[in-house]
Specification:
Layout: H1 3-19, E1 30-33, H2 35-44, E2 57-60, E3 64-76, E4 79-91, E5 99-103, H3 108-126, H4 134-153, H5 161-165, H6 173-176, H7 181-196, H8 200-212, H9 219-228
Parallel strand pairs: 1-5
Antiparallel strand pairs: 2-5, 3-4
Helix pairs in contact: 1-3, 3-4, 4-7, 4-8
């Protein structure tokens, strides 16, 4: 519901990327925002592919001022409550990525999958991947969102996609224990949304990796994409 509340999830996903040997070195601000602020930030971006009309996250590269969501106490005669407020936050660009914005008020698993998607956009920009087609870039980002959901809903403890590549990852079920049946069903639903997306960039891009990119996190696959702009056959 607020930016501060989302930071532990942000750290979990950064660890997930580290477990895939894809560490994001820059400390990118993560802000939860209202839909109006997200739409305004999208209009200010000169590049990027947006999943209209359902955009719920954005990896920013332009300098802007956005309104972020936070909580603060409000006191009155005989009562005190916590209310949600928005306040301006100036974002300045010191490199290729300014901030990641996520729509506030979404379930944790959905917020995490969106963040994993946007983090891949950030990783690609910071690592110098240029000129990728929407299908390739969005497809890669959807793969990482799908992988993170897999890592969260796997049954048992200690089972984690990231840990299969590196023991340094401590995110996912190994820290949180087995997921409830409700959480597993919710995660499966969000995975199904990614798998069945009908858009050319997001849906077709994700499904194209199944033809030649099952191990998207491998260095050879990423090198192939960097030099050819396409998934390996």
């Amino acid at each position: 519901m607020e930016t501060l509340e989302c930071q532990p999830l942000y750290l979990d996903i950064r660890e997930f990327y580290e477990g895939l040997n894809m560490k994001v070195d820059q400390q990118i601000p993560l802000l939860l925002v209202e839909r109006q602020a997200l739409n305004e930030a999208m209009e200010g971006e000169k590049r990027g592919h947006h999943h209209l009309p359902e955009t719920r996250g954005l990896c920013m590269s332009e300098e802007q001022i956005v309104s972020t969501v936070s909580r603060r106490p409000r006191f009155g005669p005989g009562f005190s409550i916590i209310e949600l407020v928005t306040e301006p936050f100036r974002l300045t660009r010191q490199c290729e990525v300014t901030a990641i914005l996520i729509l506030f008020g979404l379930p944790r698993l959905l917020t995490g999958s969106i963040l994993a998607h946007e983090m891949m956009h950030a990783w690609l920009r910071l690592k110098g991947y240029r000129g990728l087609s929407p299908e390739i870039e969005e497809g890669i980002c959807q793969v990482l969102a799908h992988m993170w959901l897999d890592s969260e809903i796997m049954s048992g403890s200690g089972s984690n996609i990231a840990s299969s590549s590196s023991s340094s990852s401590s995110s996912g079920p190994s820290k949180k224990g087995a997921r409830s049946q409700f959480e597993r069903k919710l995660g499966d639903f969000f995975k199904h949304q990614i798998e069945s997306d009908s858009s050319p960039a997001y849906g077709d891009g994700f499904r194209s990796r199944q033809r030649g990119c099952a191990q998207i996190w491998s260095r050879s696959t990423l090198d192939h994409i960097r030099f050819t702009g396409s998934f390996p056959l």
